[in-house]
Each structure stands twice: as structure tokens, then as C-alpha cells.
Specification:
This protein has 111 residues and is α+β, with helices and mostly antiparallel strands. The chain is built from 2 helices and 5 strands; from the N terminus they run αβββαββ. Strands 1-2-3-5-4 form a 5-stranded antiparallel sheet, with helices on one face. A hairpin with a 7-residue loop joins strand 2 and strand 3. The longest helix is centred in the middle third of the chain and has 16 residues. Bound molecules: adenosine monophosphate and zinc ion.
């Protein structure tokens, strides 16, 4: 069971901001910035440590989606932060790979 897989399948509600054949993006339920979006691959990959030669395109694809959403939400000029947490010390809460897109305020401290 994976909550992000359930969100992608429409079994759990979310505030969707983007979807294509392979990627899905929705608003973070506990936003840490005025804009806080999670970009996820539809294919279940647990964490960024599982990225290898076979699936490394996923990272680039997620960044392309994030850049597009940043433009759509008009934070491309003001700037934004992209974050991927991996494992316990990084505070990874959900073990379905996701890229945080955060912006809309000046972020001085590390994520
Ligand atoms: P991470 O700590 O990198 O694993 O981030 C997981 C993020 O998912 C956190 O920022 C949570 O607020 C967010 N989150 C958890 N459950 C949901 C949900 N049902 N809908 C939207 N965001 C969620
Ligand atoms: Zn999943």
C-alpha cells in the first residue's frame, strides 16, 4: 500500500496541478511555502537511491515537469527550490519518489 499510488489512481483525494502519461503533480497537504507541489512518477519507485542507469531519465523528467509548473504558477522569475528527501535522516515520510517544488517566499534556510 502506498498513499501516492492511491492518489495517482484517484483512490485518495488530492489537489491535482498536472498530469501526463507518466507523471502526476499535486499540492502538498502541509505546505511549507506558499507554493508547495509534489511531482511524482506514476511508476512506483521508493526513493532516489533506487535511481540507476535504467531509470535515470525519471529525474530529468520530473525537473521538466517542475519547471513547467513553476512557469504556470508564475514563480519562475522569483525562484524556487527543488528537493528530494532520501531515507530517515533526510526526513523522507512517503516512500514513493517525489520532487518537492517550493516557492512564493524567500527561503533562507535549508529544506
Ligand atoms: P517527504 O518528507 O519528502 O517524504 O515528503 C512527503 C510530503 O508528502 C510531506 O511534505 C507531506 O506533507 C506530503 N503528504 C503526505 N500525505 C499527503 C497527501 N495525502 N496529500 C498531499 N501531500 C501529502
Ligand atoms: Zn507508490
Amino acid at each position: 500500500m502506498c498513499i501516492f499510488c492511491d492518489i495517482i489512481k484517484g483512490k485518495l483525494p488530492c489537489d491535482k496541478v498536472y498530469e501526463d502519461e507518466n507523471y502526476f503533480a499535486f499540492k502538498d497537504i502541509r505546505p511549507k511555502a506558499p507554493v508547495h507541489i509534489l511531482i511524482v512518477p506514476k511508476k512506483h519507485i521508493e526513493k532516489v537511491a533506487d535511481i540507476d542507469g535504467e531509470n535515470k531519465n525519471v529525474i530529468g523528467d520530473m525537473v521538466v515537469v517542475a519547471n513547467r509548473i513553476a512557469k504556470d504558477l508564475d514563480i519562475d522569475k522569483s525562484g524556487y527550490r527543488l528537493v528530494i528527501n532520501n531515507g530517515p535522516d533526510a526526513g523522507q515520510e512517503v516512500y514513493h519518489l517525489h520532487l518537492h517544488l517550493m516557492g512564493g517566499k524567500r527561503m533562507i534556510f535549508a529544506a
